[in-house]
């Protein structure tokens, strides 16, 4: 920036680059504004976070806090017990009037190794989830790790998809967990796949406070 | 479940399926426990959230809250001004002793159309980021949308990568934004790519409170 007048590698002076940049950005902004003007519908979304990478529940957790910050009320059903540890709980407990958390009765499948108990717990959690989605109190409902329960066929995906498709119009529902089933993706409004590019486990790093829990 | 004794489609009775499931899950748990036992290193991670999908900043925001819930202190530098709106701010303001937020001085590129001003603002924000990473107060520093600034070459990626590679050992640093540069991915510990599978914009749905902002 001290050599404004000199030609740079691409044969343009800094001033020419600035002018070109301003022109390009102006066009970009116009195009963006035009697109935004066509987006007028407001509706409750069915959001799915899936994929093998990290960030599925964490991004859902971020959405929950964004909603809380906007004064909305949020219901959370944890289909895998014990996955959300101290960090989330402590932060959520600061907003007792806005957040309701329900955890599925029993531990996760490879801890319990009891399929019938897991099926019963999944069914109970789903009944609770439906009630939260139907009530008028909550603006957003997070069904954390529901995909895992669906993957093991502890709940019928057709039943879940049909319920979500006919949910109250303005209610936002977030579903997390790897291996989201096609039937769920089909009825969802927003689906993001978190892909793992690089993971610290590979270098022997353990799960750490503030990152994994 | 009312017909326990009958054979199901896969030729197994419910009881046989339960037994097989218990055995499978037991093996899974043993394998998982064995892997976890080898993960012993604790270190501050360089985490990158990139990709064209949603959830990059939102997942970072979730990590921030998880850290806050664990009593950690977090510094945030926003390289794109005005991207985080009411929702995040209000929720973060409940934790004034644990969170420090700095926003890059000026608006985003296609709003300002002034390249030199953006370069100066990016440089100032990076200096602030370095100070936060070096100080002992913060356990985690979020560099939100740094990738965008690097993509426009407003900052030198080699300089950024070198700094992050030699950062204080226990400090966690999160970088978000699409198009993460290879030099950054190279030195990162954990990289997640958020892929867009389905987006509500396609059906004319506008950005909504509690979801986009």
Automatic annotation (TrEMBL), chains A, B:
Any GO MF annotation of the entry: ATP binding
Cellular component aspect of the GO annotation: cytoplasm
Keywords: ATP-binding, Cobalamin biosynthesis, Cytoplasm, Nucleotide-binding, Porphyrin biosynthesis, Transferase
Entry's localization field: Cytoplasm
Biological pathway: Cofactor biosynthesis; adenosylcobalamin biosynthesis; adenosylcobalamin from cob(II)yrinate a,c-diamide: step 2/7
Gene3D superfamilies from the UniProt entry: P-loop containing nucleotide triphosphate hydrolases (3.40.50.300)
Substrates-to-products reaction catalysed: 2 cob(II)yrinate a,c diamide + reduced [electron-transfer flavoprotein] + 2 ATP = 2 adenosylcob(III)yrinate a,c-diamide + 2 triphosphate + oxidized [electron-transfer flavoprotein] + 3 H(+); 2 cob(II)alamin + reduced [electron-transfer flavoprotein] + 2 ATP = 2 adenosylcob(III)alamin + 2 triphosphate + oxidized [electron-transfer flavoprotein] + 3 H(+)
Cob(I)alamin adenosyltransferase N-terminal domain residues: 15-35
Family matches, as InterPro entries: CblAdoTrfase_CobA, Co_AT_N_dom, P-loop_NTPase
EC category name: transferase
Stated family: Belongs to the Cob(I)alamin adenosyltransferase family.
Name assigned to this protein: Corrinoid adenosyltransferase
Organism encoding this protein: Fulvimarina manganoxydans
Lineage, opening ranks: Bacteria, Pseudomonadati, Pseudomonadota, Alphaproteobacteria, Hyphomicrobiales
